[in-house]
């Protein structure tokens, strides 16, 4: 996945990849390859730990000793991986091409603000993780991901700007699939009858309450 991600924004490497007789090519010459890989791996470990802490937090609050230990373990994974992530993220930023790096450091105020807000949100998530508050840490983590998605899109756009601009593509709106998607909700049996279909081993279907979602 990391290899494909680096190739997708480095068209100059495509000829080298195409010339490989076996069809296999690792873009190890790209300076962002290893920091990008670590960036994704650490994010996966951090969010997995936070998820564990989040789903066990209710039971831990009720006095379950095993759940408290799971919360502690999950937050330990989250905080430690996030601390390393801050260093790896800085490494990743410094390995970006000069024009792209300049965009976030001094060249574009909105891009700089988006990056700084994303980093500050990650730090807030880290603070709440250290304080043993998985719920608040999760809220800040989700906000961080939202801002970093925008950062990643800016990196992709700037990297491909000399050769490709998304706004240059023609837009042909097709509303038919969208209306079919909406109609599928109405055609779903629970939406029409107000009840779930029978579930094996659970007897008769029960009424569906749209307000409570149960």
General description of the model:
The structure is a single chain. With 214 residues, the chain is mainly α. Helix 3 packs antiparallel against helix 7 and helix 5 packs across helix 6. It is built from 9 helices and no strands. The longest helix has 31 residues. It has a domain of 136 residues. The chain is globular, with a radius of gyration of 23 Å. The C terminus is likely disordered. The two termini are 38 Å apart.
Keyword list:
9 helices; 214 residues; 69% helix; mainly alpha
Calculate the terminal CA-CA distance, rounded to whole Å: 38 Å
Mean pLDDT: 81
* Inertia-based shape: globular
**Residues in β-strands, percent:** under 5%
What class do helices, strands and sheet pairing give? Answer: mainly alpha
Tally of DSSP β-strands: 0
Helix tally equals 9
Using only C-alpha atoms, the radius of gyration works out to 23 Å
**H-E string:** HHHHHHHHH
Helix content: 55-70%
Oligomer: single chain
Would you summarize the structure shown here?
With 214 residues, the protein is mainly alpha-helical. 69% of the residues lie in helices and 0% in strands.
